[in-house]
Design goal:
This protein is α/β, with parallel strands linked by helices and 255 residues long. It has a single domain, classed as Undecaprenyl pyrophosphate synthetase, CATH 3.40.1180.10. It contains 9 helices and 6 strands. Strands 3-4-2-1-5-6 form a 6-stranded parallel sheet, with helices on both faces. The protein is globular, with a radius of gyration of 19 Å. The structure holds farnesyl diphosphate (FPP).
Length: 255
């Protein structure tokens, strides 16, 4: 890490950063290029960002690759995005594994083309032993759908007599596809849009939100550093009156 980068890393930097990688289409359209080129450049930006993240002290990245709502895009664009995931896993999985990255795919397997579901299973299985860095790719993911699935798991456990008494937040959280990941500290959305678009609805409860004007294909270490610097200037109070450590992290340390 360069001295310049070290100077930019806040003392209490985010451990878990989630990214809404928005603006691929506009990036391409502004250059008179097909949207597919924007998505392809988006994959390059993702590679740069994954590479830069550990230098900023980040231990987990969660990226929004394809939402449950993205199926409504024209068939050729959906097919381009599926093709990019095939290519990304094909070309990057070995390198990610060698770098100690555990890959986890959030979202519903049902509804994915069979070969993509198999690729996703393979990526998870091959990297399951890694604990250096967690990369979560939300694919066929929607925050509401994930909450519905977690609720269904709760109902199943109650019906099976495995869960009695009052429900807790932990009981529901354990059924989400992000269960076990560190708490989300920072959610970044690029391209100037300022909404969550059904991303990490439960997990966003105490996350800091940063919106950047940059279009996703232009993203990389510099823009990530800017987002982290903005995060460093925030005071996280978790509903209290003073800056506090994350209650989930405190609980994990005590348990
Ligand atoms: C939003 O841009 C971006 C997406 C819908 C997909 C993000 C996907 C990638 C960066 C590449 C593939 C992912 C993986 C995990 C390999 P947009 O098309 O909505 O942009 P616009 O708002 O400018 O039209």
């Amino acid at each position: 890490m360069s001295a310049e980068t070290v100077a930019k890393v806040p003392e209490k930097g985010p451990r878990h950063v989630a990214l809404i990688m928005d603006g691929n289409g506009r990036w391409a359209e502004r250059r008179g290029l097909p949207r597919a080129v924007g998505h392809r450049e988006g994959v390059q930006a993702l590679r740069r960002t994954i590479k830069a993240a550990p230098d900023f002290g980040i231990r987990c990245l969660t990226v929004f690759g394809f939402s449950t709502e993205n199926w409504s895009r024209p068939a050729d664009e959906v097919s381009d995005l599926m093709g990019l995931v095939r290519a990304f896993v094909g070309s990057d999985l070995k390198r990610l594994d060698a770098a100690g990255v555990r890959v986890r795919v959030l979202g519903r397997r049902k509804g994915l083309p069979a070969d993509i579901a198999a690729i996703v299973d393979r990526a998870e299985a091959q990297t399951a032993h890694n604990d250096g860095f967690l990369l979560q790719v939300a694919f066929n993911y929607g925050g509401r759908a994930d909450l519905v699935d977690a609720t269904q798991r709760l109902v199943d456990r109650v019906r099976a007599g495995q869960l009695t008494g009052e429900l807790s937040e932990d009981d529901l959280g354990a059924g989400l596809s992000t269960a076990g990941a560190p708490p989300v500290d920072l959610i970044v959305r690029t391209s100037g849009e300022q909404r969550l678009s059904n991303f990490l609805l439960w997990e966003a409860a105490y996350a800091e939100l940063v919106f950047q004007d940059i279009l996703w294909p232009d993203y990389g270490a510099e823009a990530l550093g800017e987002a982290i610097a903005l995060y460093g200037g925030r005071e996280r109070r978790y509903g209290g009156r003073e800056a506090l450590p994350d209650p989930a992290a405190v609980k994990a340390a005590v348990d």
